[in-house]
Amino acid sequence: MDLIELEKKIVPEIFDLMEIRYNILRNIYYNQPIGRRGLAHELNTGERTIRTEVNILKEQGLLNIESMGMYVTEDGKKVIGDLKDVMHKLKGISDLEKTLKDILKVEKVIIVPGNSDENGLVLKDMGKTSSIYLRKLIKKDFIIGITGGTTMAQVAEEMPTGKVADNIIVTPARGGLGKDVETQSNSIAAKLAKKLEGNYRLLHVPDDIDRTTLDAVLKISDIKEVMDLIKKMDILVFGIGRADTMAKRRQLPKDKIDKLIEKGAVAEAFGHYFDIEGNEVWESLTVGLSLEDFQNIEKVIGVAGGKGKAEAIMSIASLRNNMTIVTDEGAAKQIIKIVKKAT
């Protein structure tokens, strides 16, 4: 029996307290500067409890309390990093990762604690975890592709600033979708490139476009350059979308969406809609990465969390086994539940 397991047997309450203080530090770090009232709201905890705990953390030199709010100190940031592996073990995350890896039959699974459907902080954690993992893969002259969406926007946001390798290029893997500029693949690619001190290209084409217009647009030299880069990319980071959600974002007619759901569509990627086993249900005309290109990329990282994304993750993970899935506890436990129910 290792030390952590022994301590859990003798003083189990210490780990509950550790998790509370760990969550307080993480919340302050992601939301700083933040006041006690705001923190209490974020954690759904009473202000009296927050006041007691933050005073203890302040005495330990892990955070500062100023007029604008609370900040995590450098020592506090180090503690957050050091405690990550401990919390993973306490919550059984490592075992959960192994179980999910075996179920999905993929190369690697990384799970962050919590459920992003219920807590926005978990999405930030997925963004941070994905960005750090991505940094480890980047090498000189690499072409990195990234899709759009709120999850990918968080990956770019949480990417630590600093050059990893020379002459890298970040490119959007898809055309633009939706009206929110901040979650467009162009904006995300540019932000990610700046964080990595690399170069970027933009794909000035909407993702949903008619065939005649698409054929004409693809002849434009700037567009052709980006399309060529997409086919040569070394790493792809992409968000995994629910079929119904993505169909609505693409503004498909309600009868078409209903038909997709009837056919069992649970996931969407690169304009393709799939059922839970990864069988293609329908393909929409889109701009950017094709399903064939997806199969040929050396390193692929799919990111999605929340209980509601479980079936979508299962679907997309079945498309290729040499990929990494970054998700959260909520999705992981739901996937396991679905598999157990089916057996």
Given as residue ranges, the uncertain stretches (5+ residues, pLDDT < 50) are: none
Shape: globular
CATH structural fold name of the largest domain: Rossmann fold
Q: Give the ordered list of helices and strands.
A: HHHHEEHHEHEHEHEHHEEHHEEEHEHEH
Question: What kind of sheet is the major sheet?
Answer: 7 strands, parallel
Distance between the termini: 33 Å
Rg, nearest Å: 22 Å
Could you describe the 3D structure shown?
- This protein has 343 residues and is an alpha/beta fold.
- The protein has 2 domains: 3-90, Arc Repressor Mutant, subunit A, CATH 1.10.10; 93-342, 3-Layer(aba) Sandwich (Rossmann fold), CATH 3.40.50.
- Helix content is 52%, strand content 15%.
- The chain is built from 16 helices and 13 strands.
- The protein has helices at residues 3-10, 13-31, 36-43, 47-59, 74-90, 93-104, 120-137, 150-158, 185-195, 211-217, 221-232, 243-249, 254-262, 291-296, 310-317, 329-342; strands at residues 63-66, 69-72, 108-112, 143-146, 169-172, 199-200, 235-239, 241-242, 267-269, 272-274, 280-283, 299-303, 324-328.
- The chain has a 7-stranded parallel sheet, sandwiched between helices. A 4-stranded antiparallel sheet has the order 8-9-10-11, sandwiched between helices. Strands 1-2 form a two-stranded antiparallel ribbon.
- Strand 12, helix 15 and strand 13 (324-328) form a beta-alpha-beta unit.
- Helix 2 (13-31) packs across helix 5.
- The longest helix is centred in the N-terminal third of the chain and has 19 residues, at 13-31.
- It is globular, with a radius of gyration of 22 Å.
- The two termini are 33 Å apart.
- The model has no long low-confidence stretch (mean pLDDT 89).
